[in-house]
């Protein structure tokens, strides 16, 4: 049993200031001003910085992460060359190498304040190497990171021989979510058929669904409509997610006005992957060149729960990234032009609470009774956290500090100017202090 932890003088995402948080036995026991410190408690002064629930990445590919350059680099930058490149790499993979890279990524993730990741794992490999490797990684990181796995038929459920049997085998081994990739099947009809098969499989097994859906610039790629239809037919309300949905960017506006209420009524969640979709989409365009991210503010306005995912870090599709969900939120904010006060806050929610709803995380949040999982960010508000990609001063899991980061502060040598700057508006540069 760990000692109680008391955080003093924090700011909350809703703007309340001067708040203390008391964690006892892994849970948030109280959240209010001026709490009494129980005997033996560790007390940390938050100095007014932002206390936040942990980041959640609702869409990632941990089996491919950190494989950039193996066996070569994606020259065209397209989704399709990335898939082909992953196909070249697959025969060279070993379970140990996948696990080692995944564990390194999980270290980065925790240090950046990520405590839950939904990762798709490729099942189009008769050996199911990646599935076995990531199930082991999931077990190892469980004390500090919730890793939820999606059985993902990367090469197409109907297009790839044996994919359905391998997908079911992955579910039997403990993978929790049914994936799909209808736009990669050979025909629109096959894509729709794959959605039906996979939704029925999930309904029969009582599992959630998360499909790569319409990740193209083709305005006639409408598998999200089929996904919403089957979600409603099979009563999977709140348990189905459409990931990417980039074709919606290019769809006819009248059609979208009919589609959005269908997605909302079916209780289907949406995940946009801003860093990846701004990079991969529009590659066949001249100018003007489409942005290729789905219609995030419009989906939100229609009542659809939308999260942002990181999708890729240093893999065949994307050479950049560092597990920073604030970088993801910043890109989403820019691409979707969500610059209003409310829009900036929605972008913060898209990398925290909205993702938690998609994963179905239990006990997530900053409320008494919730798990004592939270972050202290070097920012005064969610918008400032995004603007600065704020330092994760503390990462707390189950009431225990699992990562600390030094504040970002520059030592200035300018005559007549302050000696330190930290880029925040309130010009405070204090680190969280251990108090008496
Ligand atoms: Zn993906």
Q: Specify the biggest β-sheet.
A: 8 strands, parallel
Number of continuous helical runs: 13
Bound molecules: zinc ion
Whole-number average pLDDT?
95
Strand order of the largest sheet: 6-7-8-9-10-11-12-13
Strand percentage: 15-25%
Number of strand elements: 19
Tell me roughly what share of residues is in helical segments.
Answer: 25-40%
Shape: globular
Gyration radius from CA atoms, angstroms: 22 Å
How far apart, in Å, are the first and last alpha carbons?
21 Å
Described by its quaternary structure, the protein is single chain
> Which regions have little confidence, pLDDT < 50, spanning 5+ residues?
none
- Classification by helices and strands: alpha/beta
Care to describe what's here?
- This protein has 436 residues and is of the alpha/beta class.
- It is built from 13 helices and 19 strands.
- It has helices spanning 79-89, 95-111, 129-141, 163-173, 188-205, 223-233, 253-265, 274-280, 296-301, 325-335, 341-349, 353-359, 382-388; strands spanning 5-10, 19-24, 27-32, 42-45, 50-52, 55-60, 114-122, 146-152, 177-180, 208-213, 240-244, 268-272, 306-308, 374-377, 392-397, 400-404, 410-411, 420-421, 433-434.
- The strands form 4 sheets. It has an 8-stranded parallel beta sheet, with helices on both faces. A 5-stranded mixed beta sheet has the order 3-2-1-4-19, with no helix packed on it.
- Helix 2 packs parallel to helix 3 (129-141) and helix 10 (325-335) crosses helix 11.
- It is globular and about 65 Å long.
- The structure holds zinc ion.
- Zinc ion (ZN) binds at residues 59, 61, 120, 212, 311.
């Amino acid at each position: 049993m760990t000692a109680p932890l008391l955080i003093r003088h924090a700011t909350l995402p809703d703007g309340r200031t001067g708040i203390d948080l008391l964690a006892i036995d892994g849970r948030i026991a109280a959240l209010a001003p001026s709490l009494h410190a129980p005997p033996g408690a560790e007390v940390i002064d938050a100095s007014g910085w932002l206390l936040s629930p942990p980041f959640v990445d609702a869409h990632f590919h941990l089996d491919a992460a950190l494989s950039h350059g193996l066996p070569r680099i994606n020259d065209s930058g397209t989704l399709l060359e990335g898939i082909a490149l992953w196909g070249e790499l697959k025969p060279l993979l070993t379970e140990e190498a996948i696990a080692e890279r995944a564990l390194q990524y999980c270290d980065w993730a925790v240090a950046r304040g990520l405590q839950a990741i939904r990762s798709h794992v490729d099942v189009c490999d008769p050996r199911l190497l990646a599935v076995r490797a990531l199930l082991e990684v999931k077990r190892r990181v469980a004390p500090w990171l919730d890793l939820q796995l999606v059985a993902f038929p990367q090469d197409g459920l109907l297009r790839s021989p044996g994919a359905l049997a391998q997908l079911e085998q992955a579910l039997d081994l403990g993978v929790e979510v049914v994936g799909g990739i209808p736009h990669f099947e050979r025909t629109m009809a096959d894509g729709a058929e794959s959605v039906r098969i996979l939704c029925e499989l999930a309904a029969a097994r009582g599992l959630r669904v998360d499909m790569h859906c319409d990740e193209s610039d083709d305005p006639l790629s409408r598998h999200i409509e089929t996904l919403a239809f089957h979600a409603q037919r099979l009563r999977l309300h709140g348990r189905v997610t459409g990931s990417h949905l980039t074709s919606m960017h290019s769809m006819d506006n009248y059609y979208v006005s009919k589609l959005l209420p269908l997605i909302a009524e079916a209780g289907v969640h949406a995940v946009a992957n801003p860093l990846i979709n701004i990079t991969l989409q529009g590659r066949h365009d001249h100018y003007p060149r489409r942005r290729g991210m789905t219609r995030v503010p419009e989906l939100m306005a229609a009542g659809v729960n939308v999260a942002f995912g990181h999708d890729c870090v240093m893999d065949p599709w994307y050479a950049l990234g560092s597990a920073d969900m604030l970088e993801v939120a910043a890109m989403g904010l820019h691409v979707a032009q969500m610059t209003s006060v409310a829009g900036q806050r929605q972008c913060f929610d898209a990398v925290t609470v909205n993702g938690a709803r998609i994963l179905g995380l239990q006990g997530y949040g900053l409320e008494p009774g919730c798990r004592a999982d939270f972050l202290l960010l070097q920012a005064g508000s969610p918008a400032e956290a995004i603007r600065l990609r704020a330092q994760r001063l503390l990462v707390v899991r189950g009431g225990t500090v699992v990562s600390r980061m030094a504040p970002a502060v520059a030592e200035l040598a300018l005559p007549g100017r302050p000696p330190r700057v930290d880029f925040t508006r309130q010009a405070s540069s204090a680190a969280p202090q251990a108090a008496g």
